[in-house]
Predict the structure of NAD(P)/FAD-dependent oxidoreductase.
Amino acid sequence: MLKSRDDKKRYYSSFTTKLEKVDVIRLRKPRVVVLGAGYGGLITVTRLQKLIGVNEADITLVNKNDYHYETTWLHEASAGTLHHDKCRYEIKDIIDNSRVNFVKDTVVEIKKDEKKIVLAQGELEYDYLVISLGSNPETFGIKGLKEYAFGITNINSSRQLREHLEYQFATYNTEEHKQEDRLVIVVGGAGFTGIEFLGELANRVPELCREYDIDHKKVRIICVEAAPNALPGFDPELVEYAVNHLQRKGVEFKIGTAIKECTEDGIVVAKDDQMEEIKAGTVVWAAGVRGNSIVEEAGFENMRGRVKVKPDLRVEGHDEVFIIGDCALIINEEINRPFPPTAQIAMQQGETCAKNLAVLVRGQGEMEEFKPDIKGTVASLGESDAVGVVFGKKVVGTKASFMKKMIDNRALFMVGGPSLVLKKGKFKFF
Amino acid sequence: MLKSRDDKKRYYSSFTTKLEKVDVIRLRKPRVVVLGAGYGGLITVTRLQKLIGVNEADITLVNKNDYHYETTWLHEASAGTLHHDKCRYEIKDIIDNSRVNFVKDTVVEIKKDEKKIVLAQGELEYDYLVISLGSNPETFGIKGLKEYAFGITNINSSRQLREHLEYQFATYNTEEHKQEDRLVIVVGGAGFTGIEFLGELANRVPELCREYDIDHKKVRIICVEAAPNALPGFDPELVEYAVNHLQRKGVEFKIGTAIKECTEDGIVVAKDDQMEEIKAGTVVWAAGVRGNSIVEEAGFENMRGRVKVKPDLRVEGHDEVFIIGDCALIINEEINRPFPPTAQIAMQQGETCAKNLAVLVRGQGEMEEFKPDIKGTVASLGESDAVGVVFGKKVVGTKASFMKKMIDNRALFMVGGPSLVLKKGKFKFF
C-alpha cells in the first residue's frame, strides 16, 4: 500500500542538486507509528500533534475502524440503554489530519526486529512505535465460551448482544410451547463490567417486557462469579450496596460458583463439587480481559499478553517501542500487584508517552517517568445509581452516579475538548 | 369459567313469585357470541352494541389478545418501518364495556351441534354465533416453511421478523469470516402482502446498513413467485409499475419460480425443472392464507378453511351461525371466483352481520343480503409510493400512496371513530 521509503531515499540520493538534498533530509524525518485508537493511542496522538512541529516527525495512526469507541460505555450499548452511536466518534474529527496520517487497517503482525508492521492491506515501517492495541477477552480455556457466549468487547459485539436479547424476547410469544429458558440471562463475572452491565440490564428488562408483552416475572437474570465476592478489590461496604441494589431489581447472584462449560442451551456451573446446569437463552461473558494476542505473537516477554514496561513506558531491550494501555503491565508497589487495565491509566500513559516521544524525536530533553494518579473508580448501577471511591472517599447513589457521568465526560474532554463533550457527553444527571 | 346459565334457569324456574319470573325472562335473553376481534368481529360488535338495547341480548366478544391489530399494516411492523404499537389498539377502548362482555381467551373448539365454544380457560354457550376468526398461513405443504420461514401473520410474528432481520445485520460485522448469506433476504410470494413487504424492506435496508456499518451492496432482496406474474389479479400496467419501482430499489424478482423446500440455510427453488439453492439468512413466507383451522375442525363444509355462506352470511343448515371475514367464502359472480379475503369485505360483512343479528334477536324485521361494495384496492410500495385501483380508476405514485393512507385511516374511523384516527392514523402524506 505504502511505497517503501528506502526506495525513495535511494532514488533521491542519486541526485546532487541542493533541492533534492533537502528532500532527502525531509524523508529522513523519524516515523512514529501508533497502533490502536483507544484511550491510550488517541491521547498519544492528540498530544503529540501539538508537541512537535510538522517537520519534526511523520505520525501515523493505525486503527481497525474509522471510529474510536468508549470501551467503558459498552455495557450500556450492549444492554440497549444507550445507542452505540453515542459511544463512538470518528477519528478524523479528533486528530489533526494535516499532521497525522490515519490508516484504517487491521494489524496482523509486529516484526519488532525489522521495525515493521504487517497490516491486512500493506506494511508500515517505523522508527518509533506505540503499541496501544487494547485487550482481548480472557475465557480461561472454559469450553464453549468463545462459541456460545456474547461479549461486551466492542461496538460490533455490543449491538449483536443487544439484538440477541431483543430477538429472545420477540420470539417468546410466537412459540406455541413457551420456552421459559429464552428469558433467562446469565452474566458470567461480577467484576466491574459484569456489575455495570447488570445495572443496565435490570433497567432494560422492564422496557423489553413492555415492548414484547411479557410478564416481568418470567425473566431471570443470574450472575455467576467464581471469586468469593462480587467486585473484587472494592470496599466491602460498596460491594454490599451494589449487590443489594441489583438484587432488589431482580438479579440473582451465584457467588463462589464457577462456569465449567457454555453450551448452546446455557451453562454448566460448579460450586463445592456440585454440578448444575442452568438453561439460558443468553449467556454473556464479562469476566476479564488479557493483553493483545498481537503483542504475544510479536515475541515480547509477556504475562497473558501484558508486557512489563520501564518507568518511561518503553520495553526493555527495545528503546524505540512504547507499550501503553491494556497491554502494559505496571506494578502497583503499594500492594505489589499490577494496576488494573483502565481507561484512566491508559490516558495518563498516553500523556507521558507523547512527551517522551517528543524527547526522542528531538534528541533533547529528559524522559518522564509514568506515575499513575488514580483519581477514583466508580461502577455504575444503571442510569441513576453507582458505587465507588473518588479522591479517596466512598460514594454511593445519585452522587456516585453524577461522579460517574463526570468521569465519562472528562474522558471525552481529554480527547476531543468541549465540542466532543457537547456532542457525546452525558447530561441526564438526575 | 362462566357458570352454566341452564343451571341458573332451572334454579330460578323453581320460584313462582312475579319478581323471579321477570328474572327468568331476563336470563333468557339471547346470547350472542362473537369469536375474534379482527376487522369483521369488531365491526359486528361495535354496530350491534348500538343497534340493540342492553336488555335485548347478551353480547360476548372472545379474542386471543386484549388488543386488535391492523392485519393490513403488518408488513410495516415486520420490516421495522412502523412500530407495532401503532398497528394495534386495546379492545376495551373500542367496545362499550357496559354492554359487551369481553373474554380474553383462545378458542379451542366450536361444538356447533351443542352450541358451545370450548376456550382454553373455559366454555361458553351461545344462541347466536359469529365466527370471525381470521385466516391461517397457507404453506401448501412445502417442506420446512413452518419451521424455518418467518411470517407476516400477527403482532408476535411481525416483531420477531423485525428483530431477526436486525440480528442478522448486527451479527454480520462480528464474524471473522463473513457469511454473505446473512444479508440475503428471500420473500416467498409476490402477491399483495409480499409486494407491500418488499416496498417497506427496500426502504428499511439502507437504514439497517447505516445502523450496522454495512455496505448496501452486500445486501440482496430476492422475491420468489410461482405464478407467471407478480400481483396476480392486478392490472398489468400497475404490476409493471410496482415491479419496476422495486427493482430500482434493488429487489430481484424470480417469477414463475416455485419454492420447493425451506431449510435452515435458505431455500431450494425450481424453474422449468432446474433446481437451485438460494442461501439466505432470512426467508419470509408471504404467499397466501387459508381459512381458520378451528372452522375446519368444527365440521362445517369448507374449502381450505373457508365456508360458503348464504347471502345473509349464515351457514347452510345452521341458522344461528354467521361466518364473516377470511373464513367466509362468497363467489364474485362477475368472474365466477371467490372474493379475496380483505379487510374491506370483512368490515362490510360486519355491518350486515350486526343488522341481521338485531333482526334475529328481536324476531322482527327483514334479513339483509350482503353485497360487497369494492371501493378500491391499493398496494403500498413503501412510505411514499403505491399502485392500485380506486373507484374504478388506476392510480400510482404519491396519489396512490395518499389513497392508501386514507384507506388505512378509514378502517380506523369505521371501528373507533375520529378519536382512533387521531391516535393511530397515518398523516405523513408527502
